[in-house]
Amino acid sequence: MEDSFAKGTDIDRRTCTRVVPMRVICTGLPKTGTTSLRAALQRLGYEQTYHMESAAYENIRDCEMWLDAFRAKYDGIGTFEKEDWDKLLGHCQAVTDVPAALFIPELVKAYPDAKVVMNTRDVDAWYTSTTNTIVAALSNIDNVKTGGFEPDHLKAIRKELLTKVWQTSFPDGFKETGKEAFHKHNEMVRQTVRKDNLLEYSVKEGWEPLCKFLEVPVPDEPFPRLNDRASYWQKMTKKFGLKIPEPQKIEFEQQTTTSCVV
């Protein structure tokens, strides 16, 4: 682990509290531009925008509280109230990606003044992208290798959280019902959030609609374009030593060669 635990990021969120207001809740599932949107929000001043990487890489102990939240909501074990959200996310002004996307009603209730962005994309493109990245990576989760000092118990809770996120997102199987689950998730968001406080948005639209909705100035720079298929596998091989599946390897090598030429 090069860039999180090795840097001493070992914060017990149970000892924390809210220090900044929650201002933006993004509801999209993985591969709906969550990494690009995180970078965009941070560029707009929403520092500490939470993302799956926040728990998986940057402060792995967050997985402990996320698992508590899953047990409370989905297994009926214990409770997870606003005070708990303030502890877990109190340093953040925005959230995007899972695990947060699996707790939209709870987050909207806890932070009613936050604006809500439903980041989405064409369902067929999303399904293909997810199949060629996350599905392939999860099939190799037992082969994860990390560099630096990362205790076994942290590896275990990260694996437990990643597994829980996936099983909760697609309880009837991704291959069989992934597209249906995608539509159901977005419809749940529409039913949960007031229309006047919801932006349905694709990162392909760039800065303009996002900044208009958030009532902030449009930056004079390109919108972030991050975590395409090639860069996803570059990250996974660098951080975890995962072997790139053959179809992804071919595309990765082609895109890397092209980017080097350019």
UniProtKB/TrEMBL annotation:
InterPro entries associated with the record: P-loop_NTPase, Sulfotransfer_4
SUPFAM superfamilies noted in UniProt: P-loop containing nucleoside triphosphate hydrolases
Name of one Pfam family that matches: Sulfotransfer_4
Family matches, as Gene3D superfamilies: P-loop containing nucleotide triphosphate hydrolases (3.40.50.300)
Signal sequence coordinates: none
Name of this chain's protein: NAD dependent epimerase/dehydratase
Species, as recorded: Uncinocarpus reesii (strain UAMH 1704)
